[in-house]
Amino acid sequence: MYSFLYNPQFRIFLFPLSLFYWVIIFWRNIFYNLGIFVSYNLPCKVISIGNITTGGTGKTPAVIFFAEFLKNRGFKIGILSRGYGRNSKGTIDLKSEISNKKNWKYFGEEPVLISQKLINIPIVIDNNRYRGGKYLYNKYKPQLIILDDGFQHRSLNRDLDINLINANQPNHLYKLLPYGLLREPWQHLKRSDIVIVTKMNIKAPSSFIINKLRSLNINHYHSKYEPSNNLLDINGEKINLAKMKNKRALAISGIGDPLSFELTLKMQNIDFIDHITFNDHHEYKNDDFRLIENKIINYNPDFLITTEKDLIKLKYANKNIINKLFALPMQFSISKLCLDSILQKLDLN
After folding, report:
1. Using one digit for the tens of pLDDT, what is the confidence trace for 49-98?
2. Do 67 and 175 have their domain in common?
3. Residue 10 shares a structural domain with residue 100
């Protein structure tokens, strides 16, 4: 879908569908605002970390960052995710199930990545956020639940809505689905309590984004999306990035913002010969592995570089791929001013 959207010649055919989508979104929000559609409360505080686009904002690193920050402040945290792209149904307690060595597809790659980073924080997966939230609270009694990708999930009330906007997305993609990547019109950002423009250290946002926020009178914060000094191999072992100096790489990714990945690699002086891109949440199949293997034969790279999300899925590739495969971990960071504002709005100071 994403490669299609980058081609203006074909995108125009999607415009009528965007009008139909707008009507659905308009009436859905009206029904919630009028109380016709019911929103439910959980017996603890809830933070939603979401966006108004379909991906590429750095949401997963942000969830990890805020969970660690609040845990270090002494709060008992739980995470609630829908597990986008999973092949399972119902309520899943990831901490209980992960030991059964199920394939990542059972959970979705994002909850698996979050669980790898947040060892002692419970993670529950459920498309029905209220049901999953009740299970999470009843079993673990968290003081605060972080709702992963919850801005559009209005059936569950939250105490704080954090919305992320990618500074690096081209302006023409900020149109409603399927003509662009917007899940909701820009003015719906006013439902947010905190708006954060992400990846500011990679590329400054266009005047289009800044002017949009100003026209809506929305204050916003800037965040960074910074790479680690170490790469991770397929077993999670760390390799110092300096050891890869002067070596040639082949980049592979299936994410919502491949441009930021390329810019980050360049910032780290990683010389990549080519970048094999797939759509966000791509499930790698045998045909994809053959494509990668052909590229390896053609380019003879010293190593393959990918993202942590993709590493989870590429571990099932052939040995001639995984033996050369490394991921570049990324970390979200935000100013103390923004963190103080979040604590104040949650009354957690």
Report:
1. 999 999 899 999 999 999 999 999 999 999 999 999 999 999 999 987 76
2. yes
3. yes
Mind listing the pLDDT tens digit for each residue in 240-297?
999 998 999 999 999 999 999 999 999 999 999 999 999 999 999 999 999 999 999 9
- pLDDT, residue 4, reads 47
Going by C-beta distance under 8 Å and a sequence separation of 6 or more, which residues neighbour residue 207?
Answer: none
Instruction: Write the pLDDT tens digit of every residue in 140-178.
Output: 999 999 999 999 999 999 999 999 999 988 888 898 998
CATH number of residue 28's parent domain: 3.40.50.300
CATH code, domain with 236? 3.40.50
Residues 70 and 176 in one domain: yes
Say whether both 203 and 124 belong to one domain: yes
Domain count, the chain: 2
- 270 with 159, same domain: the answer is no
For residue 196, what are the domain limits?
A: 2-225+332-345
What is the structure's pLDDT at 2? 47
Within 10 A of 208 (CB to CB), how many other CB atoms are there? 13
pTM: 0.93
